[in-house]
Structure formats: structure tokens, C-alpha cells
Write a structure and sequence with these properties.
With about 475 residues, the protein is an alpha/beta fold. It is built from 17 helices and 21 strands. The strands form 4 sheets. Strands 1-2-3-12-13-14-15-16 form an 8-stranded parallel β-barrel, surrounded by 7 helices. Helix 10 links the parallel strand 15 and strand 16.
Length: about 475
């Protein structure tokens, strides 16, 4: 039997890679993981259930072979709001002209088109802005009836069949989960994915609805892509297990100058709440067709790392790009280099949120301080649900966090969490047994040498979730 491949990342910030036609073989998948991908994303806007099932099977086979937990994110599509068809397939809209959106299914022309979404017509007020084709065209509502909106084109351009519609000014009475999403959700949960990427969230109720369906079968990763969600940011984060800054869709509905500020606000709020936060979309976009990124893209990745994001994500770069391995390798290199810089540690220290007033948070904060004072090789947590590891990671300690858990599902979910190296390990029943296990695994996993100090935090009595209340320093023999 070949020896186990030891995988120890040289960085704290995790990497998510999207799978697609460019990454559908065992060989490519293995290369991406070894290059640095910690979590694989399945985009349910594309591909069949058979495609996704095959990729899930490959990921789990790889996980078994290398004996490392790998997270799987199933990103459901959400409502797609689109105009209807044109008799000529496309039209040219001129700035200043009138243009009508209505419920008439007749193919459109340069004066009108079908808008098969009565909810938009009902919700849009006079003066509201409508964005078409990812914001390339802009309309302003002049008048409305129950079956139509009369608008003025404020930014013209070419408009073709079934292009998207965004309404940034209003909360639409549309649920975040469509019938397709519910089928995809059932499939994903049946196949044991670890995260559900929830699209089109506008209100806390959208997350609560998904939570009622998903329960504890997966973590909900809410995609922050609607300006309306920012108005309820703290409550949405509270209801979510993790959040994603989905800058592509967010950038359509927000002015470009607002997107970086929204990103920083979301990352800061998620860190305050101790919830994993992912920065996504167009991070190394040019690597879809080029073997190296632009300098601006490298700086963009670095900014997310300096902000303290738990993970950064690749989308088209690995799903359909010509250089998927190079994209993951480049992101790994950028992240690792930033984390070696003294300025990065200074930024992390100054942006650390205050601990909450609880025993568990006090223990996690103390573990970070003790590890810093002693120069400990690592912090070790024992956790059933992942909550102890999340608290330790929230402190952004200097040494890595080795998280031991009896649950494979928990270990996979922790693959997205900053600084955490999760290992599936059987339960312990005493602090003495815990210390022995922690020091042994710290050495086996390559984090600590003989004579190194290890800070161990756990909950007593053992096996009771949410009881982090004990800290002890041990020396590796």
C-alpha cells in the first residue's frame, strides 16, 4: 500500500476551487487539491445531476486516498430574472428612448419586450432603476400599470433574448429558493455535500426558510449579492453558518466604488460573529485564458487576505479555464506570501474582534494569548460540532489550529475555516487522554517537534457540544 500523502498547508487562508468541464477528471482534481484547493464548489447553474454526482464521487475517493477531509460546496442557482425573446433575436436600445416591459409573451422589438415576472412589475415604483444584461443597460421607470412598466432608457446598448434583469432599488417578493433549487438541494443533501451556497438572499427570512429545509445536514453559506441583504447584514449573518461576498452579482446592483466598501463591511461583520467568510468572483479572472494573473488581480487576492477572510474562491478560472492548476497554484503562492509579511500579522492583530462575554470565548482568547507568550507550535481543539474550532479561528492566532473531531462531516466543514487543520479522531474521555492524543497527532501531522509546547482547549464533560471551558499546556515528548 503506498504511503499516505501528508498534506499540510503553509498558509491560514483557505482556497475554494469551482469544478466544471476543465476539471472533471481524477487526475486534474488530485492536482488541484495538492496545489492548494481545500474546498471544491459545484455550480448548480450548470451541469446535470449526473455530472455533479460523478464529481462528488471523485472528491470522496480522493479524500479516502489521501486521508484528508475535503469540503464540497453546492451552489444553488436561485431565481433568474430575464426578459423574453425578440422577433429578431436582439435590438439596439438608444439612450433617451421609451421602452416597455410587459406581460405579453409576443416576441419583442425596439419598443417593447416581455417581462415574465409580474413580481417585478408589482414591486417597481416610479423612478426605480432596472438593470439589463449584468448592468450594461439601464432603464428608469416612468409609469406603471398592473401588466406593464413604461421606462426610459438611461444607458443604451444591444439587448438580446433572455438577458438578465436586476432591480437594485426594491425588495422583490420572490423566494430565494425556486422549484429547481429545491430539487438541486434535495440531490445535494442526499449526496452528502458540506455547504449549500444560498443565492438571491434579500431578507433574514430567506435564510430561515432554507435552514428549515436543510437543518444540520449541511452548513448554509449565504451569498451576499443583493444590496437589500446589506440592510439586514448582522441578522443574516447570525442565521447563516458562513457567508460569501459574491462580488459579481453585488457589483451589478451596486456602483463599482461601493463594492470594495461592502466587501470590507461583510468580512468585518462575519469575523465579529465568528462565521467563516469567503471572498469570491473574478479574483484571477484573466487566468481563464492566460497562465499568469494581472498585477491588479494579485493585489485583489492580497487585499482579501489582509482583511482576514477565511477563504478566497476561484470560479471560471478552474471551471472552464485553460489553466486550472496554474490558477490554484498562483492563488496559493499569493496567499502564502502575504501571510509571511509582518504587515499582514499587524493587520490581523489590529482587526481582531473583542471576545464575546462567554466562558468559551474567554478560553479561546486565552489560548491565543498563551500560545503567543510561549511561542507554542499549535493550538489543539477537540470539537463535536466545530464550534470550539470556530472560536479558536476567530482569534486568528499565530500558530495553526489542529482540530480533532469524531465527525467526518465536521472535519469537512472546517476545511473552509481560517487556520484550521481538521483531523477525524475518535472520542476522548478525559483531559489526560486528550493531552496524549493532541501531542501525538500534532507531531504526526507535522506541526510540532519533540519539546514543542501545544495549547489544548476542550470542553468538560467531554462529548457535550458547546462546553469549551478547559485549557492546558502540554509538551510534545
Amino acid at each position: 500500500m503506498p504511503p499516505r500523502i501528508k498534506v499540510r498547508r503553509r498558509r491560514r487562508t483557505k482556497i475554494i476551487a469551482t469544478l466544471g468541464p476543465a476539471t472533471s477528471s481524477v487526475e486534474v482534481l488530485t492536482r488541484l487539491f495538492l496545489a492548494g484547493a481545500d474546498v471544491f464548489r459545484l455550480n448548480f447553474s450548470h451541469g446535470t445531476h449526473e455530472d455533479h454526482a460523478a464529481r462528488i464521487a471523485m472528491i470522496r475517493a480522493l479524500e479516502h486516498r489521501i486521508e484528508r477531509p475535503i469540503g464540497i460546496l453546492a451552489d444553488v442557482q436561485g431565481p433568474k430574472l430575464r426578459v423574453g425573446r425578440f422577433s429578431a433575436g436582439r435590438v439596439q436600445l438608444q439612450t433617451g428612448q421609451s421602452f416597455q416591459l410587459d406581460l405579453n409573451s409576443t416576441p419583442g422589438d425596439a419598443t417593447r419586450v416581455n417581462l415574465p415576472h409580474p413580481e417585478i412589475i408589482e414591486a417597481a415604483a416610479v423612478g426605480a432603476t432596472l438593470l439589463l444584461d449584468d448592468g450594461k443597460l439601464r432603464l428608469r421607470v416612468l409609469r406603471k400599470r398592473s401588466d406593464m412598466l413604461e421606462t426610459q432608457v438611461t444607458v443604451g446598448g444591444l439587448l438580446s433574448d433572455h438577458k438578465g434583469v436586476n432591480v437594485p432599488d426594491v425588495v422583490l417578493p420572490i423566494p430565494a429558493l425556486t422549484d429547481k433549487d429545491r430539487l438541486d438541494l434535495a440531490f445535494a443533501l442526499e449526496h452528502g455535500v458540506d455547504f449549500i451556497g444560498l443565492s438571491f438572499v434579500q431578507r433574514p427570512e430567506d435564510v430561515a426558510e432554507a435552514k428549515a429545509i436543510i437543518g444540520d445536514r449541511a452548513w448554509i453559506m449565504t451569498k451576499m449579492e443583493k444590496p437589500q441583504a446589506l440592510e439586514n447584514l448582522e441578522e443574516i449573518i447570525r442565521l447563516s453558518d458562513a457567508v460569501m461576498v459574491a462580488r459579481g452579482d453585488l457589483g451589478v446592483e451596486l456602483p463599482p466604488e461601493e463594492v470594495p466598501l461592502a466587501q470590507k463591511r461583510i468580512v468585518r461583520a462575519a469575523r465579529q460573529a465568528g462565521k467563516p467568510v469567503v471572498v469570491a468572483t473574478q479574483m484571477l479572472e484573466s487566468m481563464i485564458s492566460a497562465p499568469a494573473p494581472t498585477r491588479a488581480e494579485a493585489s485583489d487576492v492580497a487585499t482579501a487576505v489582509f482583511d482576514g477572510a477565511d477563504a478566497v474562491m476561484l470560479s471560471g478560472e478552474t471551471a472552464v479555464g485553460q489553466f486550472p492548476y496554474e490558477a490554484v497554484n498562483m492563488m496559493d503562492r499569493i496567499v502564502a506570501r502575504v501571510e509571511q509579511d509582518p504587515g499582514w500579522r499587524s493587520m490581523i492583530e489590529t482587526s481582531r474582534p473583542e471576545p464575546e462575554h462567554s466562558v468559551a470565548d474567554a478560553i479561546a482568547a486565552a489560548a491565543r494569548q498563551v500560545a503567543h507568550t510561549l511561542g507554542a507550535a499549535m493550538i489543539c481543539t477537540f470539537t463535536e460540532s466545530g464550534s470550539t474550532a470556530l472560536r479558536a479561528a476567530r482569534e486568528r492566532p499565530e500558530p495553526p489550529v489542529l482540530s480533532l473531531t469524531p465527525s467526518a462531516a465536521t472535519a469537512r466543514r472546517l476545511a473552509v475555516v481560517w487556520g484550521v487543520h481538521a483531523v477525524v479522531s475518535s472520542d476522548t474521555h478525559s483531559m489526560g487522554e486528550t493531552i496524549v492524543r493532541a501531542t501525538k497527532l500534532a507531531q504526526q501531522e507535522g506541526f510540532a517537534a519533540s519539546g514543542s509546547d501545544v495549547v489544548v482547549i476542550a470542553g468538560i464533560p467531554f462529548g457535550v457540544p458547546g462546553t469549551t471551558n478547559a485549557l492546558q499546556v502540554a509538551r510534545v515528548k
